[in-house]
Structures are given as C-alpha cells and as structure tokens.
Amino acid sequence: MDIIFMGTPEFAVPILDILHSHHRVVLAVSQPDQFDQRKKKAVVPPVAAYASEHGIPLIQPDRIKDAVDIITSIPADLIVTAAYGQFVPKSILDHPIHKAINVHASLLPKYRGGAPIQRALMAGEAETGVSIIYMTPKMDAGAILSQKKILIEDADTQATLFHKLSLLGREMILDVITALANGTAQPRPQDPAGVTFAPNLTKEDELIDFKKPAWEVFNQIRALNPNPGAYFVLDGMNIKVFGAAVAPERTTYPPGVIAGIAKDRFMVSCGDNTVLAITELQLPGKNRMTTRDFLNGKGRQLIIEAKEIK
C-alpha cells in the first residue's frame, strides 16, 4: 500500500519503521521542530528525524489544516496516525482509498485523549493496551479494528510503558492493513457507556500532594517519569522525584513530614497513615541522582526527620 504516516514522538517511530519496511510511505507528517530553552537549540521530533534519515518525503506544518492541499494532492491507499498531536480535518481523513486509522495507546473506549499512558498509570490500572481504530472527527471515537492488552507492572513508568505499547502497536499494524486490503476487517463500534478521557498533562498534575495515600503518589511519580517529573517543595526548591516505592511501615506523622531516613532513601508520610520511600530525585539545575548520593551531599542538611515538606 501507499501510506501517508502522521506521528511525532518516539512512540510512533517503530510503527513508521515497520510500515517503511513492508509498504511505501509516500509522505510523513510530523509536528514542527521545538526549541529547547535549556539546550538553546531546535529539537527535531523523532518521526521527522526518521523520515529524513530514510528518504521519506516530510512536511511539518504548524497547523495541519494549512497542509490539506499538499496532503490530498498525494495519492494514497491509507493514512496511519500514531500520536501525531493535532486534530486531523475530515477532508484529509477521507482522502485515501481505505480512509485513515489511528494507533492509540489505551484500551478504548477508556482513556480517549492525549495522555492515555500517563493517566492509566496515575489511576493505578492493572492493564492497558493498544487499540487500532478508524479515525473520525470526534476524538478517538472510531470503530475498533484491533485491540490487544498488556499488564502494567509495578516497575513500569511512563518511559517503559511507552516503549512496550509502541512495540505492541508495531506488532499489530501489519495485520490490520492486510485485513483492510483483503476486505476482511471487522470493525466494531466503541461502547459509549465505557468512555473515559485522558486529557493532556497540566502543571497542576506535577505537584505531589502527600495528603493522598502513598500508592497514589507512587503512581503519579511513575506516570510522570521521565517527563515532566513529579515534584515537591523543600526550602523553596522544587525537587523532582523519579524513584519511589510504597513502604511497608505505617506512620503517626501527618502527611508531608519526613518520617525516617536510611542510607539510600528517606520516607515521607502520606494520607491514610501510609509511607512513601524516595529513592531517586533531582535538584533544580542538577542531574538526576540516587537518594544515597543526595544524602551524602547537600541532602544531609536538607533532609531532617520530622521536617515538613510540601
């Protein structure tokens, strides 16, 4: 098939790669380069980098609606999208012979929206998966062509789950395309009663609320690891947390108090008398470090038992 591919982040690259290996990708569409204020340079999205490296025609419009004429002028059998990042106009969706399909990282109809992986982790879900659906003008509402589940493990973070689901989408996409080509696809509508949403992350999602039980804080931390990172405030500093575990201990301290210190971790009291152990963190302007290294350095003066943090 001649395929137009639309995607932006690393999640989409394995899917583009297998399409490029087995079909003809006639155009890749990605979000524009983003300027990294810290590194003081433009950062090329992973899909755009892959397309450039493999000689795939590429466009990166600021607004997809401004590229309608370009896209619809290219003959195509199918559009495949994966985490593109913009609503795609119906005139583009209807352009190819087999319309447009989307690789979505959730078990639809749950977690429609831009942050399904993060929201599933935050909610403490036991499983997630990939749904390949027909695209419609309504967000993530199209009929399901294929769906597969995976378990969410305690060690999973945003990064590991992105990788697992990306590879699962890669594994699924060729069979879906074959079914579309052969006329054997059996799309099934989504159940409206099961719809939930996964809105994009906000700054409010990043601040840790230790009034919540430790398992909820743990899920927030891993959902935001590595980007953008959950944080608490100590002595006026925003300290990001990347490694944590729910401790077996119970505490009588109120939430948000340092409840104990060990060589490689310190404990923070949380809601319901639960305790969270902090094992990896990052000070402003510094690299990530283990709590052991933190406590061997500046942290020894900052972390004092019974001290309140926010």
What does this structure look like?
With 310 residues, this protein is of the alpha/beta class. The protein is 25% helix and 26% strand. It has nine helices and 15 strands. The protein has helices at residues 13-22, 46-53, 68-72, 90-93, 116-122, 158-182, 214-223, 291-296, 299-302; strands at 2-7, 24-29, 34-36, 41-43, 58-59, 78-82, 100-104, 127-134, 144-151, 230-234, 237-247, 258-261, 266-269, 275-282, 289-290. Strand 1, helix 1 (13-22) and strand 2 (24-29) form a beta-alpha-beta unit. The longest helix has 25 residues, at 158-182.
Helix content class: 25-40%
What integer is the average pLDDT? Answer: 96
Q: What is the radius of gyration?
A: 22 Å
Q: Tell me the overall shape.
A: elongated
Number of helices: 9
Largest sheet: 7 strands, mixed
Query: How far from one another are the termini?
Result: 55 Å
Structural classification: alpha/beta
Order of SSEs, N→C? EHEEEHEHEHEHEEHHEEEEEEHH
The low-confidence runs, each spanning 5 or more residues with pLDDT under 50, are none
The tally of strands reads 15
